[in-house]
Amino acid sequence: MKAFISGLVLGAGASQRFGPPKQLVPFRGTTMLGWVVDQAQRASGLDEVVVVLGRAADQLREQVDFGTARVVENPVFNEGCSSSYRAGIGALNSESTAIMIILGDLPGVTPEIIDRLAEAWREQEGPIALCSYQGRKGHPMIFASSMFPQLVDLHGDKAAWKLVDANAALVQEVQFDVPYPDDINTPDDFERLVTT
Questions:
Q1: Are 124 and 172 in contact (CB under 8 A)?
Q2: How confident is the model at residue 34, as a pLDDT?
Q3: Is the preceding omega at residue 140 within 30 degrees of 0, hence cis?
Q4: Is 43 exposed, middle or buried (0-12, 13-18, 19+ CB in 10 A)?
Q5: Exposed, middle or buried by CB within 10 Å (0-12, 13-18, 19+), for 148?
Q6: pLDDT at 157
Q7: Rounded to a whole number, what is the distance in angstroms from the first to the last CA of the chain?
């Protein structure tokens, strides 16, 4: 039986360096978060998509098309992305055997990238798998359910990397011969993305 992978889209960020909620900036006919959620839902490698909201959750619910994704709120989003892992893992389908963490401000992650990472993980079903773009490790990342307790216990931002670093020998790197997808942290980042 095929392993059940839940996509966990992190859309709870406080946008401290961006200013207004970057999840809502217009992007390719939708919003930044709407685009990322759509990419995740178009990926055949995911069995469900869960989206975690934090800052401006009411606005996001009004303005973002979440399709069939399950939407949950992280009331303590200021504590960093680790708090969103807790909120998201708590909302997963009981059949879930792994989560793929997808950043809501990484619009360059395509369904093809998601599917290839999912397929590679299903071949080995190790504790951790992640993308490597021309040798640079990054998101999305997959964590098997055996890692859920450790994810839930993490604190702060960049938390998933702590598990990656602590379990380096167990990490499966899936190679992509494409540039690292741009993440959007500032208005300048966004301007570069939409003008290139």
A1: yes
A2: 93
A3: yes
A4: buried
A5: middle
A6: 67
A7: 43
> Rounded CA gap, 195 and 175, in Å?
27
Per DSSP, the three-state class of 86 is: helix
Neighbouring residues of 135: CB distance < 8 A, sequence distance ≥ 6: none
Q: What is the pLDDT of residues 115-171, one digit of tens each?
A: 999 999 999 999 999 999 999 999 999 999 999 999 988 876 677 899 999 999 999
Q: What is the mean pLDDT of residues 89-97?
A: 95
What is the rounded distance in angstroms from the CA atom of residue 9 to the CA atom of residue 175? Answer: 22
**Residue 126: what residue type?**
G
The burial class, CB within 10 Å (0-12 / 13-18 / 19+), for 114 is buried
Cis peptide before 181 (omega within 30 of 0): no
Domain 5-195 grouped into CATH 3.30.479.30: no
Task: Provide mean pLDDT across the span 6-11.
Answer: 95
Query: Is the alpha carbon torsion for 137, 126, 147, 41 positive or negative?
Result: positive
C-alpha 166/C-alpha 194 separation (Å) is: 36
| DSSP classification of residue 19 | S
Most confident among 7-21, 116-130, 168-182 (mean pLDDT): 116-130
| 18, pLDDT greater than 50 | no
- Tokens in use for 130? 């992640």
**Axis crossing angle, helix 81-89 with helix 159-166, rounded to the nearest 10:** 80
pLDDT at 195 over 80: no
